[in-house]
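#structure-requests
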Amino acid sequence: MDYSSICFHDGNITNLINTRTLNTHHDFNHAVQMHSSLVRRLSLEQELEGHRGCVNAIAWNSEGSMLISGSDDTRVNIWSYSSRKLIHSIETGHSANIFCTKFIPETSDELVVSGAADAEVRLFNLSRIRRNGVEEGGISPSAVFQCHTRRVKKLAVEVGNPNVVWSASEDGTVRQHDFRDGASCPPAGSSHQECRNILLDLRCGAKKSLEDPPKHCLALKSCDISATRPHLLLVGGSDTFARLYDRRMLPPLSSSQNKSPPPPCVNYFCPMHLSDLGRSSLHLTHVTFSPNGEEILLSYSGEHVYLMDINLVSGNSMRYTSADVTKLTSFSPILDRAEVHSSLYGASLNGFSVRNKAARLDKCRKLVQIAEKSLKGETDYYYGIEACNEVLDGHGHGHEIGPSLMHECLCIRASLLLKRRWKNDSHITIRDCHKALQINPSSTRALICMAEALAVLEKHKEALDFALASQSLSPSDFEIMERVDNIKKSVAAAEADKAIMKSDRGSKTNYRAGKVLSLSDIIYHTEGDNDASIDDPEREDSDYDDELELDFETSIATEGGDDDDSNVLPRNLNLRFHQRRDSTMEIDRPNGSFGMSFENDKPEMAIDMKQRYIGHCNTGTDIKQASFVGQRGEYVASGSDDGRWFIWEKKTGRLLKMLHGDDAVVNCIQCHPYDCLVATSGIDSTIKIWTPNSPVPSIVAGGASGPETSNVLDAMEGNQRRLCRTREAILYVF
């Protein structure tokens, strides 16, 4: 049995076609729009030419008849879906790069809006454009909103609402612009501080960890409004936590004259292993709701794409506190859990017929055998991990297979992840070992694997605890003894290195006192205290609050990545240096006092990841999207810094398609509302249109840059190396 022969979970398209006349309740269009057999045939159909800079934003209208795009050239273009031709080209009047643009709902697609790096939001009425040529698009905006003080990174609209648009900015605010209130904001003679349109004030909302009180400005990068429950607002920015708000529960619109404590959110969302990074520079670049509004996607700069489950009513989502993060890596065997889990998994099998259950179990056993061969080195670790994902995530999250096979599969996947060592694989290893130990607390395989993963993360005490526990359970096992000895040696060596570095710190401090720091020193903190990287080698570089904060501002030319050498800072990059202050001192409280108290007996909680999607690289730009593909959102797509874009099966995280879509970086991916068609854009000045016109289905296909890629793993491993770079500058400054 070859893993590549395993079918995807959307079934056989021929069967769907044959049964559409028999099952009148089945939504055939939804099922086949982005069926796996069509997605695997996607290839480049056409490039839309009309911009003269990077295309940073694309979006379809509700009917799918038009596509709107915004670019570094400060123009908004409108394209026809049927003819693939440019209909309108609007010179917006923005003085810097356009980052976001949208059609306003329920306006017959006559109103469009744009947001840009000049901190402005502009509204245009397409009916004012004379119909005798696309070049005559120099119309005046119907409204100009100049309320923001930093770059506007994302716009959101509400289904059925033609009067309001919401904008998220790096100034830490989400503003609500009502077109009925006037054509400009602030009004003539007023300052932006007087605009009373702040829906969400997060200028003191950024968190370093789940238990850390919010203090600093959360520079917002993305926002989205649920299409099914439009009162729900999702935002993400310069920390690791996405936040879900109920707009009905937010305070009245306010101005920016006084900073307010951040309002309570409905939920925080963050993968558990990213929730306690302290001073990490890791942050979100995109957040979005699924088509049915039950799930969300988070895309991280320097990390992967994660799927989260909202489940506001059912409560099935994995909620955790900071104490749970510690508990995950602490050795505390609970011997009575095995019996509980055995009965749980045994009962879950009763919902299937004997024949179906036998067929499923046989398939899962064969997949586990594939994973075992991978662990022995007969195939690449990646394929073994994918086989385990199919068993654990593709079959009711493992509940259909019983505790014994689930335990075996968890241990195999943990071992494979530990050997592969891609970004944060060690953290996922710990998760799998923890689940395996819940099934069998006496599992020496899970205990020693947990110890090795903790040693990789340099959690020395915890690693030794698990290692000694595994040795005590199997004192005569030579392999276990050897692995425990290796852990002891690595822990001793690491502790010795830390002691040497600690003794050298005093001399380094004296050296710094007499040295003038270079720009490289400031950006990369090469003269800073590196303890944070010692504690967690997979952690991003620290963002030291007591050092200088960098504020990047660029003009239109830098966004295109036009410099020949992308590894150097752009020539016209402007830097402002200022000391970061404790912003809690600037919060004006209702009683006239200053400061902010976060005393709360109940610990903060967050929702953990449901699935992760890996293989791409997101480090070079700040606008990289992750999108649900299809009306049912059964697939997930993301752009990448290597010029490719990736499509995964949502349920299992299995890579479905990898396409070359740009000479530098793919940032934006938008699936057509109804047809099997995807539009992508990035650093190139063109928009690519992808349709299932390839004669043969495959994981990869010829794209903008030529023939089919021969080795998918080479591309994915190259992206992992890019993700793990922490000192090299790859700045497009989006």
